[in-house]
Amino acid sequence: MIARSRPWWYLAPALILLITFTYVPVGNMLWYSFHKWDGLDVTMDPVGFANYVRVFTDEQYWRVFLVSLYYFVASFAQIAIALYFAVVLSFNVRFKNLFKGILFFPYLLNGVAVGFVFLYLFQPDGTLDTLMRFVGLGEHTRLWLGDPDIANFSLAGTSVWRFTGLNFVLFLGAIQSIPGEIYEAAEIDGANRWHQFRHIIAPGIRRIISLSFILAVSGSLAVFEIPFIMTGGANGTRTFVVQAYQTAFQFRQIGLASAMAVVLLLIVLLLTWIQRRILPDDEVTLT
Amino acid sequence: MSKLLRAAKYASLVLASLVVLVPLVVVLFAALKTHAEYNATGPLTPPRNWFNFHNFAVAWTAGNMLRGFWNTTIILVVSLTGTVVIGTLAAYAVSRFTFRFKRAVLGLFLVAALVPGVTTQVATFQIVKSLGLVNTQWSAIVLFMGTDIVSIYIFIQFMQSIPQSLDQAAMIDGANRFTIYRKIILPLMKPAIATVVIIKGIAVYNEFYIPFLYLRSPDLSVISTALFRFKGPYGAQWETIAACTMIVLLPTMVIFLLLQRFIYNGITAGATK
Q1: At how many degrees (to 10) do helices A111-122 and B2-31 cross?
Q2: Does A110 sit within 8 Å of B223, measured CB to CB?
Q3: Structural domain range at position B191
Q4: Which pLDDT tens digit goes with each residue over B93-130?
Q5: Which chain regions cross the lipid bilayer (chain B) (predicted)?
Q6: Which among A116, A121, A284 has CB closest to B241?
Q7: pLDDT value at position A287?
Q8: CATH number of the domain that B71 lies in?
Q9: Number of residue pairs across A and B with CB atoms under 8 Å?
């Protein structure tokens, strides 16, 4: 009997933490989402689906989905840039490691610091304006973060700067795991660089690219740090998580914020399910 | 033609490097300028005196950065140790025992990996509050230990590559299960532990949301929140904010230069799981 319970002793700490800080919150969140609650009161008023209705009908709430679109579109640029440099640096290039390090480095930086670096860059008469004047585009300078038509582009651009390095290193890793002999054989058969990309590299990194797209969707819904630090959600830059944060912790509408979180969670789970359907996971074997 | 292509290739690499480096370098410039100099010169003008560390001194003391680094270090050390111990124990159970509900347990870990942490904070906050941990360092520590599924996966995968015959040999020599974990498995897990410590360490150092939410008292500031709070009173003095930003970025630069290879491997292992 003691022997049979033994594995549970090893598992207990991990399982207790997992249940307390992931599963219980998810369960509670579902429960809260059908109630009106300020987080302090001992009683909660059941309100049925009212919170969900509000998330989808009140412009203040569904608007945040549109803001995600900026980041989603930006992530296409991010994947394209990362792919280009991963391919370039997988062939012979001088100072390869230096370029690799520079391109990857922003991903490691502290989010608050990155926010400040770009606040400084986008300031009126800041670095960007000065550079634009320098190359003769002086009359096109804007209030990069103050103008609601531009602010989301500036923030999405910051996000590209910050995260391209991750995609780049993942793509580069995938390309370099393709055995070198395949390229040699292809070269003997007269394949040029484009053929090599089309027929060797592209199929070899298909999986990681599609994974990147899925992560791009869930990532663009979960954007928080950059808009929160740089604009505080002002000028039409409020994202889903910024809105949920303010609803829950500033306006104390826990029920409504929970409904938002449940919607986001369902979207992410749905996307993951779609990804698993399109690309069955044949590599992961855990048992 | 191919010469032109080659030139274009290097041009694109140099351009991308400039896009990465210029925003950071101008912040360094600003950090080294005096207040008058900052107001008089453009952002692309290098500082007159490269050794003017006055702003750094102001940022260090006024921003309470020493406390920030100290708190970050405590949280890092405790939560990383916890993650390694808890994760390797769980991985040991999964890879070395057969028991009922093993698949169900694995499923629990797998599904949890899909739940983005930021979405559940609304409800997690109520739990942490009811445990009385809000505004104590334990809130950040237990959340960093308890929300990490990726590291358990890295441990499980690595442990499965350690041959079971080692365990069996030790068992014949009379070692019990825990001794096998402690004396045989754990020492062999060093590469996996290094990977987890690196990717988790960077994530914890950079984390903003959790400390911002749970460590409200200024005494508990970690470096992210110390930097964030610093901007309030110094909003107009960019040369000081720039210095504070550089103080936060410098350790990352040093770590990256020292551990490049491990970081690349760790990131690749962590993200594709």
Answers
A1: 100
A2: yes
A3: 67-225+254-271
A4: 988 888 888 889 888 888 887 777 777 888 999 999 99
A5: 69-92, 104-125, 137-156, 192-215, 235-259
A6: A116
A7: 35
A8: 1.10.3720.10
A9: 238
Q: Closest partner residue to B90 among A14, A103, A211, by Cβ?
A: A14
Same domain, B129 and B191: yes
CATH number for the domain spanning A115: value is 1.10.3720.10
Contacts of B94 in chain A (CB under 8 A): 11, 286
Q: Determine whether the interchain pair B13/A11 forms a contact, defined as Cβ–Cβ distance below 8 Å.
A: no
Tens-place pLDDT, residues A8-66: 899 999 999 999 998 999 999 999 999 998 888 888 888 889 999 998 998 888 888 88
The two structure tokens encoding residue A139: 């009359």
ipTM at complex level = 0.90
Residues B28 and B151 reside in one and the same domain:
no
Q: How many CA atoms lie within 13 A of A161 on its CB side?
A: 23
Which one of B21, B89, B119 would you mutate to disrupt binding with A, by most A Cβ within 10 Å of its Cβ? B119
**Long-range contact set of residues B161-164: C-beta below 8 Å, sequence gap at least 24:** B162/B188, B162/B189, B164/B96
Same domain, yes or no: B117 and B154 = yes
Amino acid at B4: L
Q: What is the dihedral of CA A268, A271, A277, A280, to 10 degrees?
A: -60
Q: Is residue A24 part of a domain?
A: no
In a domain, A196, yes or no: yes
Residue A126 at interface with chain B, using a CB cutoff of 8 Å: yes
